[in-house]
Amino acid sequence: MTTNRIAFQGEPGAYSHEACRKARPEMEALPCRTFEDVIEAVRAGKADLAMLPVENSTYGRVADIHHLLPESGLHIIDEAFVRVHISLLALPGTPLTAIREAMSHPVLLGQCRNFLREQGIHGITGADTAGSAKEVAARDNRSLAALAAPLASEIYGLDRLADEIEDRQNNTTRFLLMSREPDHSRRAEEMLTSFVFRVRNIPAALYKAMGGFATNGVNMTKLESYMVDGVFTATQFYADIQGHPEDPAVRRALDELSYFTSMLEILGVYPADPLRKTQEQ
Predict the structure, then answer these.
(1) Measured on CA atoms in the order 45, 246, 200, 204, is the torsion positive or negative?
(2) 173 among known catalytic residues
(3) Looking at the predicted structure, is the pLDDT value of residue 281 above 60?
(4) Most-buried pick from 82, 182, 189, 233 (CB within 10 A)?
(5) How confident is the model over 38-89, as pLDDT tens digits?
């Protein structure tokens, strides 16, 4: 059964909602309260896909998301890079000179320091970006604005007083699209394989495990470690590599990796987003 829905975390108008529109414009976006709710919506058949942010070019990885990926039972089928463009949103007819305070998530406030200082606007913390826009729309306060995605202005009927006010023009968030079933059938110019693993308790296990990728010429674009169940001695690794598991070099590297690991799980095989090259440059 298909629903033609894609689930995301946050209020309508959030950056995850914008990612849904860009990556799957033909699908209905389903807002969810937490990342766990997003995953459960797909597992329960309420949505076909999950849109999950995993890392930001300025602020690094999204907290807790790497714990959720292997436990979700879902499979990565695509990635999406979304530029974080920030707009100043206010009640219709409000001039920029009337704004005294801007509400948003602390991360977004930190990304607009220069603009806020130049305009003499004081930043105040809101629950999240789209939630702040929703709150501004509900208040009768023309001195209050929200910092949010341009999409939020459309949803909550707010004016965009200024666009692209972020301090860093290359600020980008990477999202993963996940489904109930894996799809290893596609081939593109650049394929990515994501997996998690735990090394065996032997000397230099990680060094030996990584050796197979070097000797086979397989490029590892990401390797991150994180604790499992809050135990310092239980470390799990998340990795992205270029290539498809059926490529001879990748197959050999994964075979060698499996020899030094106590657990190895492929999370997804998918084409690289065309914007990945731009971001790398």
Answers:
(1) negative
(2) yes
(3) no
(4) 82
(5) 999 999 999 999 999 998 887 777 877 878 888 899 999 999 999 989 999 9
Q: What is the pLDDT of residues 255-269, one digit of tens each?
A: 999 998 989 999 999
175 noted as active-site residue? yes
What is the third-level CATH fold of 5-83+171-179?
A: D-Maltodextrin-Binding Protein; domain 2 (3.40.190)
In the prediction, which pLDDT does 231 show?
Answer: 60
Query: Catalytic one among 175, 197, 237, 260?
Result: 175
User: Looking at the domain 87-163, which fold is it?
Assistant: D-Maltodextrin-Binding Protein; domain 2 (3.40.190)
* Catalytic member of 94, 129, 173, 261: 173
DSSP 71-106: HS--EEEEEEEEE---EEEESTT--GGG--EEEE-H
User: Nearest to residue 2, comparing CAs of 32, 53, 42?
Assistant: 42
Provide, for the chain, the percentages of residues in helix, strand and coil under a 3-state DSSP scheme, each rounded to the nearest 5.
Answer: 30, 35, 35
Which residue in the block uniquely carries the two structure tokens 């070099």? Answer: 249
Identical fold at 5-83+171-179 and 87-163?
yes
- Look at the chain and count its residues: 281
What pTM does this model have? 0.88
Report phi then psi at 178, rounded to 5: -125, 145
CA distance 56 to 62: 7
Cα–Cα nearest to 1, from 61, 44, 37: 44
Rounded to whole angstroms, how far apart are CA atoms 253 and 89?
Answer: 50
Decide: 5 and 123 in contact? Cβ < 8 Å.
no
Q: Which of 14-23, 30-39, 56-65, 170-179 has the weakest average pLDDT?
A: 56-65
